Amino acid sequence: MGAARSTVIQPAYGVRGRRGKGRVSVVWGSKNATTMPRCPRCRVGAMLLKKPLASHTEMVQAMNVTILMSGGIDSTACAHYFLKRGDNVTGVFVDYGQKAIEQERNAVKLVSRHFNLSVLTLTFSSGTQYTSGEIVGRNAFLVFSALMGGQIRDGILCLGVHAGTGYYDCGLQFIERMADIVDSYSNGTVQLLCPFVSQDKAFIYSYVQEHNIPLHLTYSCEEGTVPTCGKCLSCMDRNAL
Questions:
Q1: What percent of the chain has pLDDT over 90?
Q2: What is the second-level CATH architecture of the domain 63-239?
Q3: Quick check: pTM over 0.90?
Q4: Does residue 190 contact residue 114 with C-beta atoms inside 8 Å?
Q5: Count of C-beta atoms within a 10 Å radius of residue 27
């Protein structure tokens, strides 16, 4: 066989894979890439297709996938998506002192039990009292925590982000840069994939409903209260659904 040719794959969500030297690394966004069809089974953009085939089993060989779990709708939908593809899925939950730590921890426990997932909990302490709203550096911290504390050395690392938040670390530019860093750190063996990054919360909610994912097991409130505060961005997102 000759040397592998470098090709560009563009699934439905603005993700492109750069294939060369026998590996696939993921970067984000390309106006010139070719759009591939969505998977008809789950309505989510088919990622890393070797060729545009119909079924999950025909898509790709099963991969090791680590989901950054928060107990919320987004990461729960991501877990379902990769399980449905037939991948080997595990979770990482990061306790960094967030206000909702107890409720998030409980939701992760319930969701992981439902999906029969093994979840590693990582705990970091800085003494900082975090408030609701945007926490600058949060998603970058979560990715690096999983790489370092979770000792992820191959496969896919998934962050449950979606469009429409206005937060920098939920956008395509952030994911593109983080994907490059993850690729460099791992020498191309770990890929950062966020299947819902270009879709809004309503789409994820539709996905959850269509696949009968138990929404009642999840928790989404930055204040960490029971009942939820109804005022934070996470609550407003959920209430709008």
A1: 61
A2: 3-Layer(aba) Sandwich (3.40)
A3: no
A4: no
A5: 18
- pLDDT attached to residue 58: 43
* Residue 186 identity: S
Q: Distance from CA of residue 122 to its chain's centroid?
A: 17
Listing DSSP states for 89-152 in one string gives EEEEEEESS-TTHHHHHHHHHHHHHHHT--EEEEE--------SS--TTHHHHHHHHHHHHS--
Please state, as a whole number, how many other Cβ atoms lie within 10 Å of the Cβ of residue 184: 10
Residue 162 contacts residue 171 (beta carbons within 8 Å) = no
pLDDT in tens, 186-210: 999 999 999 999 999 999 999 999 9
Residue-range domain boundaries for the chain: 63-239
100-130 pLDDT tens trace: 999 999 999 999 999 999 999 999 998 888 8
At residue 207, φ and ψ (nearest 5 deg) are: -60, -45
Reference 185, options 148, 159, 156, 160; nearest CA is 148
Sheet holding 88-95: strands in order across?
Answer: 119-123, 88-95, 64-69, 155-159, 190-193
163 neighbors 197 (Cβ within 8 angstroms)? yes
